[in-house]
TrEMBL record:
GO-annotated molecular function: ATP binding; helicase activity; hydrolase activity
InterPro entries membership: Helicase_ATP-bd (IPR014001), Helicase_C-like (IPR001650), P-loop_NTPase (IPR027417), SNF2-like_sf (IPR038718), SNF2/RAD54-like_C (IPR049730), SNF2_N (IPR000330)
A Pfam family this chain is assigned to: Helicase_C
UniProt keyword Nucleotide-binding, yes or no: yes
Protein name: Helicase SNF2
Domain annotation Helicase C-terminal: ranges: 542-695
Keywords from the UniProt entry: ATP-binding, Helicase, Hydrolase, Nucleotide-binding
Domain of life according to the entry: Bacteria
Domain Helicase ATP-binding stretches: 299-458
Biological source species: Actinospica acidithermotolerans
PROSITE patterns assigned to the protein according to its UniProt record, in alphabetical order: HELICASE_ATP_BIND_1 (PS51192), HELICASE_CTER (PS51194)
Length: 722
């Protein structure tokens, strides 16, 4: 005999359903609060964008209108009537302009059409950038709304899963139990339907009483309070933005989108391929960084296509895209990953993996190689090694490597070298392989064939010279299954106009010996330039990285300025890079008129060139906006020197985003200087942020003689020199 299920009383069912409805409303309110914050961002962005467009139109004099139409326009008459800029004419009708003496119907109509076309172009191509006036009301509203949206992102990251799980379960069970809530309705229920409703009621009652549910609801309550908190003070949002501007623009891009650049951001892939990549899931559980949409697309591309070349231009974030792909695979269960890179960027990779993900990085190079290899094999994570060390890396065949990443992959363009043979062997062994190179492949078809040959040999046959001749976009479409490249101009319209990268390196044997001798001699200046003692890129990591950056800039047709405090370092740079492309060195001994002449010749050179300059001489008074890549050979004791030097290129008239690469040696005077300067800078910012005091007291964040002595003492102690 089947035992009859006892039916709950209608009043009990109704009370439970009301409670369930209240909880669903709470969860829906959480999402509604998040959407309200996003709407606030959109509204604030629109106001800032409108102001930015207006500012751009204000900077265009009416005389420029003829450049658009190619016809003669009554610019003088317009100026006399008070219309001096395109902004003054925006929205003005042809009928109004015809009322100006000397302006006829044709001239008025042409003027209106020219203004419309310029305004549309400005609307599409003007972004809100990091050099906006942070004190203005529009910027304050935007930064405040983004601050709250970033808080919401962090809050929702912790409760999104339990909120979705509970909402779905409560909705389903409440719907099934609802027929028991009315006395009349339950009379017409069949036994089977009534039993199903009773089971749903019992399960819902148990769910809401479950300690895990109670805990999740407490977290949802706390999240709602965080989302409803009052806005921060503008100064708080402004200071946070200055420390985390890239994250702010990532959040902005994700909320407002960038639809007019969507094709460029996906590397001009075919629609079918782009759709397949877009459908690829990306689990960001193990990431500690917010990805920009194009970076997420790059990671999805690597995952969907499995064996590819990621060729984004330097400064777009290829390293972060790679780490995002590794983090996704870790979430799927993969445990071991291998990165192969030049020795000059090994330290950088270790730091990037640690700072941007929860994955553990293991050094498989140098004196720590054996211990690192054992730890990596045993515990998993990201093994980071060099092209040279890869050849002798003893890894058990049974060890499954989830992905192989080869940085600066153009190093293996010649398939006959030992390092290329070693890389090929690993490519044959690992299912997923990601090659990284910032060197554009459009005009290097044979090199590209060699690289793709490691990954997708079947694609090689489809690559012809005609693809490259047809242009970069046509080339990218033809090789889309194996190659994705985005230029800075394609994807960084919403980002700060200045990209700064700390390039961490390590001493070679000769440089390390010179450094220890300088420390022993208590020579602060000797310590600062010891990283260039070997004078050979093969053993000098800073010099090797400098050459790599300069060569990649040459591949992209960019001009470079190399700054150093030391004349002998600049002489070394000039000898290493070669006089055929280097101007300088520009030093304090060069007369001012000759300095400008040197800069003028550098600027007039077509395509790539390098200007080597002492930072004291070239950092002030000269305009170098022809350059878009800046290399700082060592950190400066006065950060104002760096700021002024960067401002020589990052200024009005600059049409390309400026990349700043600061060369740093780990565990050295460079690292100690940065630590001290950062501490002093934070204290200084707390009292004199963006004030006249900051401009009048640069020594507040300089390293003076007493601090230099502290650095020497700390390094002597670290090296055991007493």
């Amino acid at each position: 005999m089947v035992e009859e299920i006892r039916t709950a009383a209608p009043a009990d069912v109704k009370a439970l359903l009301e409670r369930a409805a209240g909880l669903r409303a709470k969860i829906d309110g959480l999402h509604a609060s998040e959407q309200e914050l996003h709407e606030a961002v959109r509204g604030a962005y629109q106001a800032s964008h409108t102001a930015a467009v207006r500012g751009r139109l204000t900077g265009i004099p009416v005389e420029r209108l003829k450049d658009v139409t190619g016809a003669r326009l009554p610019a003088d008459r317009l100026a006399e009537a008070g219309y001096r800029t395109v902004a003054d004419l925006d929205g003005v009708t042809a009928e109004t302009l015809q009322g100006i003496p000397g302006v006829g119907r044709v001239g008025a109509e042409r003027t209106v059409e020219a203004v419309r076309r310029i305004a549309e172009a400005a609307e599409q191509n003007t972004g809100v950038t990091a050099d906006m006036d942070l004190r203005g009301p529009d910027a304050a509203a935007l930064l405040t709304s983004l601050y709250r949206a970033r808080v919401a992102d962090r809050v929702m990251e912790r409760v999104r899963e339990p909120a979705a799980r509970l909402s779905g379960a409560i909705t389903s069970l409440a719907t099934a139990a609802k027929p028991l809530g009315g006395r009349v309705r339950r009379l017409f229920l069949g036994r089977t339907r009534r039993d199903e409703a009773q089971r749903a009621y019992t399960e819902l009652d148990g769910l809401l009483a479950n300690p895990r549910t109670v805990k999740d609801l407490d977290r949802i309550d706390a999240a709602e309070r965080r989302l409803q908190a009052k806005p921060p003070r503008p100064a708080t949002a402004r200071n946070d933005f200055e420390k985390h501007s890239a994250d702010y623009f990532s959040t902005l891009s994700r909320i407002i989108g960038d639809h007019h650049r969507s094709e460029a951001s996906r590397g001009f892939l075919t629609d079918d391929l782009a759709s397949r990549v877009g459908a690829q899931q990306l689990d960001e559980t193990h990431l500690r960084v917010a990805l920009r949409p194009y970076q997420a697309f790059g990671a999805r591309f690597a995952l969907a296509q499995r064996r590819v070349v990621l060729g984004d231009e330097m400064g777009c974030g290829k390293t972060v895209e790679s780490i995002a792909a590794l983090a996704h695979l870790r979430a799927e269960g993969a445990r071991h990953f291998l990165v192969v890179c030049p020795a000059s960027v090994l330290v950088n990779w270790m730091r990037e993996v640690a700072s941007h993900s929860t994955l553990r990085a293991h050094r498989l190079h140098g004196s720590q190689r054996a211990a690192g290899l054992r730890a990596w094999i045993r515990g998993g994570g990201v093994g980071v090694t060099t092209f040279e060390a890869l050849q002798g890396l003893d890894v058990p065949e049974k060890l499954a490597v989830g992905m192989l990443v080869v940085d600066e992959a153009h190093y293996v363009k010649n398939p006959d070298t030992m390092r290329s043979i070693a890389v090929r062997a690993w490519c044959d062994r690992v299912e997923r392989v990601l090659f990284l190179t910032g060197t554009p492949m459009e005009n290097r078809v044979e090199e590209f064939r060699n690289l793709v040959g490691y990954l997708q040999p079947e694609v090689v046959a489809s690559i012809g010279e005609i693809d490259a001749v047809a242009g970069s976009e046509a080339f990218r479409r033809a090789v889309g299954p194996a190659y994705l490249r985005r230029n800075q101009e394609d994807v960084l319209s919403e980002l700060p106009e200045l990209v700064q990268v700390d390039e961490w390196t390590e001493f070679g044997p000769e440089d390390e010996l010179a450094y220890k001798e300088a420390v022993a001699a208590r020579s602060f200046m000797g310590m600062r330039r010891a990283a260039y003692a070997s004078q050979d890129p093969a053993s000098c990591a800073k010099l090797a990285r400098l050459v790599e950056i300069a060569d990649e800039a040459a591949s992209n047709g960019r001009k470079v300025v190399v700054f150093s405090y030391f004349r002998d370092v600049l002489d070394l740079v000039c000898r290493t890079l070669g006089e055929d492309r280097v101007f300088g060195p520009l030093t304090g001994g060069v007369q001012p008129a000759l300095r400008q002449e040197m800069v003028d010749r550098f600027s007039a050179t077509k395509g790539h060139a390098v200007l080597a300059s002492q930072i004291q001489a070239g950092g002030v008074g000269l305009n170098m906006q022809a350059a878009s890549v800046i290399i700082l050979c060592e950190p400066q004791v006065k950060p104002t020197l760096e700021t002024q030097a960067i401002a020589r290129a990052h200024r009005m008239g600059q049409i390309r985003r400026v990349q700043v690469h600061r060369l740093l040696a780990a565990d050295s005077v460079d690292q100690r200087m940065l630590e001290i300067l950062e501490t002093k800078k934070e204290l200084f910012d707390a009292f004199a942020r963006r004030s006249d005091t900051a401009e009048k007291m640069p020594e507040a964040v300089d390293i003076g003689p007493s601090v230099a002595r502290q650095v020497i003492a700390a390094e002597r102690e670290r090296l055991g020199l007493g």
